[in-house]
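USER: Note each token:
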Amino acid sequence: MAQWESLQQLHSSYSQQLHELYDRDGLPMDVRHYLAAWIEKQEWERAAQDLDFAMVLYQVLLENLDNQYSRFVQEELFLMQHNIRRYKQNFQRYQESPCSLAGMILWFLGKEKEILQTARLDEQVQGLKMDQSPMNTDTHKDLERQMAGLRNEVQCLEHTLICLEEQQDEFDFKYKTLQMEVMADKAQQMQIQTLLNKLNECRKTLLSALTRLLDSCGLLQGVLVQGELADWQRRQQRACIGAPDDVCLDQLDKWFTGLARCLVQVLKFLKKLEELMGKLSYDQDPFKQQKPLQVRAETLLRDLLKSSFVVETQPSMPQGKGPLVLRTNVQFSVKARLLVKFPELNHSMKVTVSMDRDTPQVKGSRRFNVLGTSSKALTMAESQDGGLVADFRHLTLKEQKSGGGGKVVSEISLSVTEELHVISFKTNFELPDAEVVELQASSLPVVIISNSSQQQSAWVAVLWFNMLSESPKDVLFFANPPMATWPVLAEMLSWQFLSSTGRGLEISQLDMIAHKLFDKQDNYDTCQISWARFSKENTAHANFTFWVWFDGILTMVKACLEEMWKDGFILGFVSKERVKRLLKKKLRGTFLLRFSESIKDGGVTFSWVDYTPDNEPDVKSVQPFTRTDLAQIPFHEIIRNFQLMEADNVPENPLLYLYPNIPKDQAFGKYYTDKCGEESPYVKYIRTKLVFVSKEGRLEAKSPQYSDMAEGAEAPPSQGELCGQTADGDAILKAAEAAMDDPLLSSTGRDADGDLLALLDQGEGFNSWDLLSLDGPQIDLSFQFDCPIGQL
């Protein structure tokens, strides 16, 4: 593509640089435009140093100007004839120094290249950014080309209109001159008729060009509104429930504004045609047929403006579980944006906010008033990216004491967290002809609660709606909520971890969840789950729902295990059967971290592999740690200091390698505190100790004196009743075995002659060291835990 042609297709900011370049004296833009092909083919660098060669180019330049002048004479473009003649006279000052002229033209061409290179570099940088977002598609590249084409067409029409006005002025001047003459010969009359015929053809050509331009605008507007804007709205829905989708509006803002400016320019052209028609009209004047074009342009602009008013940031509370869950009397924020920026037209636009405007009422549903500053001006001052926004930051909702009135259209009864409400925004846009267009936008449906205990139920309603709803304004969605297929549900569940912790769920983890929901299947893609089963009905062998269990784990990970989860050290969602398969062929001491399936608010445990004297793998596990436990002692410190006492009475940490084969300290070293053992700051929170001992014939558990408790440290109450003081070892043993009956946490098929569990607690008993028959120095048991250990 020729350099000048490329320059004409640049973005408006670079076009402005080009105009500023040619505002200088030297090379007129008209000469550069009409002689572009010839200028770009010449060796100006050589001419700047070779006088003879420069003189040749100088003479050819003047000849080209003469030729262009002749064309304008034939086309009867009076103004351009004048300009070309003046340019030729100015160039004649270089007759004695043609090398200076060549150097000057070379300088202009160099500056043009700099503008082009800067523009292309910016496009490449933008392209790299677009590669990371959905904007980098063939459709979007085509949109950019169409927008550039529209800008070029508008510029050409502007030039054509100027020429048409000159042509009409010339005709008007000659026609009036002819009327003043007493005797006009036939040749003069024929000349006037010829000018009128040409003028008529130019008017037809201009109207045809305007029609084509409006056709292009209509097609482009359809792609922007029905395609790009609709895609953005769906991406925003997904982003509200954790999807890593790009919801930046900068590109849409650029496209909408560019198209709106083209339409406004078309309306200005049509207004100019009315002026020209007012000065000169005749029978069969094509300008008399321009009214439909004006109506069409106004309709396109009006529809574009209505579509360009959107909710950029959905309603959310600062400390909420997620967007679209609001609580009465608690402040929330929301931001509306107009994608068409006309500082000269919309600088004084006011946006007002209201609640449940034009939404159907359900029997028993609540009504709310919006309190706070409910009217704000659209401004670019509150936007970091230069958008025209109204940012409402301090709104609150207050429930109406009585029903809001109005006719009830549905007898369906919905729970508080299934009620959906819509926040509406309204503003007015005044067109150049003083017509006012009312613009409206609506938020995605919000769930309104009055107590923080309702957050969990409200958030799952938001997830289900935005995961499945095809109509963003369907406030009766939960009257008959659709079922979710597993692929859609799996994606949403992964988004919850991704948005909260920065790491989503892997396929193997999702497979475990699918197995929990649908049992064993060859293919889960066709499996479906209902809204009630997902969020209302208790799971098998538990007194809580699937969502409560899943959200409890997510909350625990976010609060206590985020870094370990993000680093990929927690397998998490893995069944007991799979734990055995993963560990049974690994080195002794290989362990993995998994989530409990039986704890409502989330629990995490570790399982490790040991080997029997017969070299058979023996997978063991501890009772899961809850969020309360982890708030007192970080999980990595538990893993670091966990100890067992084997049959030989030598304490050791059985956790050696994080699955598959990472040395424990290499994996968790970066999380450790500086001190360990009795010097650890967490030792004062430890009350009970876990010890494996080997006894002949029967299990026996006694409570030793807690001689290694940090002196003066106050121990918290023990968990459960297994750790209270007792003098009867058999009673403790029975209590320990009872605690290990949980099929998810305890051993299965325990061998009475195998390793034994002794729960050691502070008490008034015999000396534990006699029980363990220890010889030599006292063994450090300063950090072991109040939880049963068993075999999987």
In short: The first strand starts at residue 309 and ends at 316. The mean pLDDT is 78. Residues 480 and 656 are 53 Å apart (CA to CA). The longest helix spans residues 186-240.
